[in-house]
Task: structure prediction
Amino acid sequence: MNATAAHPHEQSSRDKILDAAEGLFARRGYAAVGLRELAEVVGLGKSSLFHHFESKPQLYAAVSARILKRIDGCVERSLAAGGSAVQRLERLVEDLIDLLAAQPADARLLLRSLFEDDDLPGETPEEIESKGTLANIMSSISAVLREGMDAGQFRTVHVPHLLLTLIGQVVFPFASREFGADILGKDPFEPGEVKRRKRELRDLLRHGLLAPLGR
Amino acid sequence: MNATAAHPHEQSSRDKILDAAEGLFARRGYAAVGLRELAEVVGLGKSSLFHHFESKPQLYAAVSARILKRIDGCVERSLAAGGSAVQRLERLVEDLIDLLAAQPADARLLLRSLFEDDDLPGETPEEIESKGTLANIMSSISAVLREGMDAGQFRTVHVPHLLLTLIGQVVFPFASREFGADILGKDPFEPGEVKRRKRELRDLLRHGLLAPLGR
DNA sequence: GTCTATAGGGAGATAGAC
DNA sequence: GTCTATCTCCCTATAGAC
Result:
């Protein structure tokens, strides 16, 4: 995977920086994280960071791009696995939840990147690539929704609004470890809670909230 | 409403600061907003801010507390208006959407405050009050959900998980003006889109996503 | 590829005149 | 209640030795 790594088990400095930055940016946001602190976490001098990334914005763009690619990969694999539109959508939601649960920084950073566009200076190549990746994710999910509607498996809904709804209900609960834990009384990333979350969300999409008898 | 205002139509400096800070903090986050910039927007010198608020964290706490009170007031009024649990929940969701649509900064700042707890130093009196307000909001919504379940109007669901789901799907779409506009092709705060959002969300809660024929 | 040293600027906050 | 001037600290980024 990494052409420069003779020993795949040893993580390069670049990857160590990316991992540490991901955690810090996710928890506290771009502006609140200083390179001094990041360097401390990684175990390097502050200046050494600039040998791997040319600037702080560029580092953030790299972190953000890596997460978007991870999510895009998950979406593509999940939707490619076949089945009816209903099966594919339900599997997609489950797989995304598993991904977000396995990578605690992803949901926070994804959510941030969706409403912190003002944060970053501008138009590095990595940011442009990320825009494309994000657009690809959205269009893939839209496609399965439209497919299900066309096949008569889904109600007739407004696809863009449903897209926003799905993002909110899938991503948000994993974006806030502390608040989520307050509400649930348990760590949302704990396997049992993850499983329950998948079940509850699947049932809500299948049946809505109203009781069958009340219909 | 303001005891010190002889002329209610003239906004005090304190309120001007709160309004400007609310907009800036919502768009860019706590750490990214400098007091110099805030002072410029308000039209004051930087030092004058410290005559109205003792520190930046305390100012942020005041802004955050004001928003939480606004939302809490909306929740209490909406739930107090009576009707069945179904009617009260549906009205609550509609009223919250109207509030978030009317106050574009609220959704962003609320969402931030739900997953940026690490942002702020600690335990000012205003933050403790805010914690109580937030807890009150959550317990009020939980109450109507449990009531509907007990009355057999709602399916048997896991209330805390549904709470997280509702927050995500109600708040998130209004937290990101730019991304939301990209997805919808229109400004999410436009009256027509707000109306459609309320309808789509109500229908999703009533029926889920699956087509009636497919059941 | 990592380090020390430092430049250059902006941050939050204070002092004190008006 | 607002201002100017200033303090101290930390920020991103660079220079250059090893």
